[in-house]
Every structure is written in C-alpha cells, then in structure tokens.
C-alpha cells in the first residue's frame, strides 16, 4: 500500500486544507500523477459523480466524499494530503463548494461567491485560514459527531494494565454502601497529582478473538469526584466529594483522571501499514451491529492505528472440511461487506463507527487495511 507521504499532490495551490508549502514541488506532483491516483481501482470517482456539491450544515467529510468517490477513505489521496494534513487539516465550511474537475480527475474547493472560470471549472480566491488543532466554528466534522460524542468523554473501555493501577473507592462515611451527589467518599491509590476524576465500574471482560486473552473491560460511567482532603500522617486515604453521579457509587469503583474533550481533527484515511484486526465486541452487549453503531477491535496505537483510520470489514472465512481432498481442513476467504472508522484509540483496543455496511457486523469479524 502506498504511504501518504508518497501520494502525488493534486495541483499545488488548489488544495482546500493546507498551503502549497506543505506539499511536493510542481515537478513532483503532476496532473498525470493525480490522474493515476484518481483512476486507480481504490480511488476511482463514481461514474455519476456530480459536477459540484455545495457544503451545508449537517454535512460530514465522509458524506461529501461518498458523493464523488467509490471509496470515501480515498479523500486524502485525491486531494494530495500528507500525513500532517490528515492529523491537523484545514476544515471545510458551509457555503463552500467542492468542484469536480472531470478533465483532470481531481477535486477543488471554492466559495459561493467565486465566478471565475478556468478550463470549465470555477476558480476562486481562498481567504487564508489559520491552522487550528480542532474544529473551527461551523466546520463540518469527519463523521456524525452525535454518534460518537459520548464515547469521547467517558472511558467506556479500560485496558488491563490501566485497571491495575487506577485508584479505587475503599469506603464511605458512616459505613454507607452507596454514595450520591454531594456526599463524601474515601479513596486509596496513586492520584499522580490529579484532583478531578471520573468514576467507573469495570464490567464485561473483552477477550481477544485471536488468542482468548482478556485485553480490557467495558467500563460503566458512574460519575465524577473532586479531591477534598489529602491523607494525614496517620493514613493513606484521600477524601473526595461526589460532584455528580449517573449511578450510585460503591466500594470497589475505580477512578480515572478527567480528560479534556478530544479534538475532532481527523480525516478518513487507510492505515499507513498493513493492519489485520478482529472485532472484539459490539457496544451495548448485543451480538451484532449495523450502520452507525459502535464496535471495538483488537488493535490500537501500539499497532500503528491513528484517528480517522478506515478499515474494511470482512466476514471471517470459516474453516471447513474439503471432502474432495481427503477431508482436509481449509479456510474459506474473508468476504468484505463494509467499513469501520476509528475514532478513539487505546494502546491495544480501538473504538470504531460502522460505515457503509451491506451486512451485520459480528464479533470475530475481520477489520483490515482496505484492499
């Protein structure tokens, strides 16, 4: 698979996300190279792609890509984005127009007010935009924010090595069993300098389909607490106040630091290196998932995944007996039926949003680099 840094830029200076200085020189990024990328089996344009699309509020980058490309994850290659632009892109805003330059098999970005025409494609003067780490006001997201927002704020998954070192609730005042908002709770463990924490309750163990090992736990969000008093010379117990509670807190519940809301600055793209993962679970304890539902896979940051990675979903080919060849055991091919968009990463597990499926996702299915 080509790496992003080697994908030819599509006409330096006409890119929507970054200045021309971030891309290859014109001699290295020709229209012929752009056409080769756009015409590849992976990154072909749809035969009925529109001439243009006016960006409106509610659009997503994936949705716009789907109007022009057979594979929406080809967006970075068609625009000629390198790895840095994928991580921190300039964003598209309502009122702008994505034009399809059919002659050169590329896309351009313009504004509604543009009226110049070059080669049959309207051209506009783009106002400079400051590079930002997150979404600007009204900028369109990569995927529907409402589908993933709860999974960006609360832990939801806790890996085994993290669980072992998290502080824990050991008691409540007056020997209470449960604690609610406004009450105190006592905690032991290493706070690592933190003062505000989310409280979670370890739930269903998540097992790696490849080897059966437990690689994490689904975490039920319980509430938040804030440090009220440090331990004194006679004990090692911290006193916390319960700030809010979704569920009643109990002895044994665990604490994780409150982290800022993650920045939604990513673009759909295939992984840089070859990835072959398996579906570990479907969120909510159900056995199958459909469009816009959340799944976990048994690969994460340590395997080279990053935010916005798109993987193909394939039904894991079963092992059968070939009765035509002495009852030899053979594995049938994996069959592709959709994609998953990775939006939150842990070391060895990732959350993904199910995209464009023609079948239900099942635990054990394959998630791999698009072929």
UniProtKB/TrEMBL annotation:
Signal peptide span: 1-24
Domain LysM: 51-100
Superkingdom classification of source: Bacteria
Alphabetical list of InterPro entries matching this protein: Bact_Kbp, LysM, LysM_dom_sf
Keywords: Signal
Any Pfam family matching the protein: LysM
Keyword Signal among UniProt keywords: yes
Gene3D superfamilies with a match to the protein in the record: LysM domain
Name of this protein: LysM peptidoglycan-binding domain-containing protein
Source organism of this protein record: Undibacterium rivi
